[in-house]
Automatic annotation (TrEMBL):
<dbReference type="GO" id="GO:0005315">
    <property type="term" value="F:phosphate transmembrane transporter activity"/>
</dbReference>
<keyword id="KW-0813">Transport</keyword>
<keyword id="KW-1003">Cell membrane</keyword>
<keyword id="KW-0472">Membrane</keyword>
<dbReference type="InterPro" id="IPR003593">
    <property type="entry name" value="AAA+_ATPase"/>
</dbReference>
<keyword id="KW-0592">Phosphate transport</keyword>
<dbReference type="GO" id="GO:0035435">
    <property type="term" value="P:phosphate ion transmembrane transport"/>
</dbReference>
<feature type="region of interest" description="Disordered">
    <location>
        <begin position="1"/>
        <end position="20"/>
    </location>
</feature>
<keyword id="KW-0547">Nucleotide-binding</keyword>
<dbReference type="InterPro" id="IPR003439">
    <property type="entry name" value="ABC_transporter-like_ATP-bd"/>
</dbReference>
<comment type="function">
    <text>Part of the ABC transporter complex PstSACB involved in phosphate import. Responsible for energy coupling to the transport system.</text>
</comment>
<protein>
    <submittedName>
        <fullName>Phosphate ABC transporter ATP-binding protein, PhoT family</fullName>
    </submittedName>
</protein>
<dbReference type="GO" id="GO:0005524">
    <property type="term" value="F:ATP binding"/>
</dbReference>
<dbReference type="InterPro" id="IPR027417">
    <property type="entry name" value="P-loop_NTPase"/>
</dbReference>
<dbReference type="InterPro" id="IPR005670">
    <property type="entry name" value="PstB-like"/>
</dbReference>
<keyword id="KW-1278">Translocase</keyword>
<keyword id="KW-0067">ATP-binding</keyword>
Length: 271
């Protein structure tokens, strides 16, 4: 058994451990888009097996910072990232890190559900296939079923796995995208406003899923909904004009914020 497998197995059996281990550690992170300084000197420690919410007014840099954690900003030609981001003490911007492998470990769910133009089955099987996670068809079937079950979608799609993913409802498509993201067994799940295109019932289902996922993953969610941040997260980071103004327990941020700007935002005076 290699070290990584040992760690994975350990993760599966220790979800009762306290949620205070640091998974992602960012220091002095700056992001520039050409001359625009979008993220300024951000330091943050994100805990394992917890949900962390990023909140703040439009354009404050929440999505930009989220994308630093799986190097999605690498895909934007004018974006430049400086500073250090460690995942499990490893510098993810080190030249030896393969961004494709990194993104298997750090999954992402986007604002708008974006299933591939493939069957429901193939949407979920795609990642495990390209990363060689299944030895045979039967193992692949198991991964697809397990991922759809964990995304609370299995019962709704088990009889139509060969139909196109794009034929599902918006809420089902988003849960399919979550199943696709967790099929490669990521350790961190980044969610960029995952419910913004969903109705209240689908939003409830995805929020319930986020609460369940935190047993095994470090989940980071960008949201415009303060109620949602309050409902699903244990830690909240408030961003304003590219700065991380305040980061604390969600209860503290919403009930007893220390910075005036945080208070103004959560009471609706800025936004
Ligand atoms: N691809 C890009 N090219 C150029 N500038 C960008 C790009 N993406 C974001 N920006 C700029 O970076 C800043 C932060 O944007 P970002 O999307 O990260 O903010 P946000 O807090 O997630 O906003 P919103 O809540 O509206 O989604 C803004 O000034 C934005 O215009």
């Amino acid at each position: 058994m290699n070290q990584e497998t040992a760690v994975r197995n350990d993760r599966d059996t220790t979800s009762h451990l306290p949620n205070n281990q640091i998974k992602v550690s960012a220091r002095k992170v700056q992001v520039y888009y050409g001359d625009t300084h979008a993220i300024k000197d951000v330091d943050v420690d994100i805990e394992d097996r917890n949900v962390t919410a990023f909140i703040g007014p439009s354009g404050c840099g929440k999505s930009t910072f989220l994308r630093c954690i799986n190097r999605m900003n690498d895909t934007i030609p004018i974006a430049r990232v400086e500073g250090q981001i460690l995942i499990d003490d490893e510098d993810i911007y080190d030249k030896r890190i393969d961004p494709v492998q990194l993104r298997a470990k750090v999954g992402m769910v986007f604002q708008k559900p974006n299933p591939f133009p493939k069957s429901i089955y193939d949407n979920v099987a795609y990642g495990p296939k390209i990363h060689g996670l299944a030895k045979n068809k039967s193992e692949l079937n198991d991964i697809v079923e397990k991922s759809l079950r964990r995304a609370a979608l299995w019962n709704e799609v088990k009889d139509r796995l060969q139909l196109p993913g794009t034929g599902l409802s918006g809420g089902q498509q988003q849960r399919l995208c979550i199943a696709r993201a967790i099929a490669t067994e990521p350790e961190i799940l980044l969610m960029d406003e995952p419910c913004s295109a969903l109705d209240p019932i689908a939003t409830d289902q995805v929020e319930e899923l986020i609460r369940e996922l935190k047993g095994n993953y470090s989940v980071v969610i960008v949201t415009h909904s303060m109620q949602q941040a309050h409902r699903v997260s244990q830690k909240t980071a408030f961003f304003h004009l590219g700065n991380l103004v305040e980061y604390d327990d969600t209860e503290t941020i919403f009930k007893n914020p220390k910075d005036e700007r945080t208070e103004s935002y959560i009471t609706g005076r800025i936004g």
